[in-house]
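Batch manifest, entry 17 of 40.
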Amino acid sequence: MVFEMSKKGIKKLVGFILGVVIAAGFILVSPPAGLSREAMVALGFLIAAVVWMVFETMPDYVAMMAMCSCWVVFGAADTKTAFATFSNNTFWLLTGALAIGAGTASSGLLNRISLKMMSLFPATHKGQCAALLTTGLVTGPLIPSTTAKAGIMGPIARAIGDKFGYGNKTT
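Output type: C-alpha cells
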C-alpha cells in the first residue's frame, strides 16, 4: 500500500518535525553563560511554536497551548506562570468580543447589519466610509474597550466589503 501526501501535508509534517528537532536541540545543548537550563527549554519551545505556526502544522492557539504545556512538563515554568496570560481580564475581554463577532457572523446578523448600513448611505466609497464612521460613533459609548470594539466592528466592516465584492486584502 502506497502512502501519498499532498504538498500541504508534507509541509506540515516537515514543519512539525523541524519544531520538535529545534526544541530537542535547545533542551540537549548546554546553556551559555548567564542563561539557565529553564530558559533554554522555554526558548526552545517558543521557537518550536513559532515554526509550527509558520508552517501551519496546527492552529495558532494549539501551538501556543502546546508551548505553555511543554514549559510546565519540562520544568521551564510552573503552571501559574506558564498560563498567566490566560488569567487576566484582557484575554477574557478579547475572547468575549471575538465570540460575539463570530456569533453575529454565523447567525447572519452581520449580513443584515451591513445591508442596513449600506442602504442608509450612498453606494459610493465615501458613503460607505461614512456608514462605518457613523456606526463606530454610535457603538463607541456602548462598548467601553477599544479592543472589544475592534473585535466586533472588524467582522462588520468585512461583511460590508464582502457585499461590495471586494476580495481579501484588496486595496
